[in-house]
Amino acid sequence: MDLRLKKERKASLGILPTPLMPLKRLSRRYHCEMWMKRDDLIGMGMGGNKTRKLEYLLGEALEKHCDTVITAGAVQSNHCRQTAAACARLGLECHLLLGGCEQPAQGNLLLDHLFGAKIHWAGSSRKGEDMELLAENLKKQGRKIYLIPYGGSDAVGALGFVYAVEELLIQEKQMNIQTDAILFASSSGGTQAGLVVGNQFYRAGKQVYGIGIDKSPTGEPDTREKIEEIVATITDQSGLSMPEPDIQLNGDFMDRPYAECGELEKHAMTVFAREEGVVLDPVYTGRAFGGLLRLLEAGMFKNRKILLWHTGGAPAIFAYHSQLT
What we know:
By secondary structure, this protein is an alpha/beta fold.
């Protein structure tokens, strides 16, 4: 796999480059220079970082002449919502395996229905454990299936963030700035793996710092192992020579269960809304940047130039009214 050749073989879905904006009030408050990469404004299906992954995943699906896509996630999955939107644009049938049982359509789930996705309720299995079984049933109906893993996180999807590093470097050069660290919510591993490879491939020299938001269920590879696996697959397939990857993943802010919004998340959402007019989501950016605010208050990153990568997720906020008021 030639990384530069693979770049041309994608489905064009996002409005790129996404904006790079200064966070001036927060910079003054925390004594560092803060910037934000706005993948929440990427355009596809109300935005989010998964669009970058889907450009390569669905590009491959089209190359293979597939007509049906299956993926999985939690009931308020941003990945599933963006997959449903992308499939609608490309004329592909979309099946979503969502954790939990049938419930009122609000937030991302409302958009899943609006984009025409077929919903399958998976109980406690929110990470795609039943995708193969659904695929077999659909194959019997004559469908040609493309499976997308939980979070779009594999070596194909992660390419979206390998090339996102190049996009960032071009913007920084145009704006005459140079950040030295990238901070973001890390969950299924693909975003961080892509940034780690891109940081090396483009010689960006940045600290790639993920803030974990989801504990791995017992018996599954943890996020760090998943990141290492994806990095190894990309480098092996591309022939890219890389030193041992530096996987920086802070897991100190996962006291509450996944997708449960508490004081940490509410505080971050309030601070970013009132200081910068930026809406965070209660699951990913709320938890990750809530953790970041605690690190900043402790003096970490003081006098540094840091980039916060907004991965989107705002539609989910409307399903969290009771937890946010």
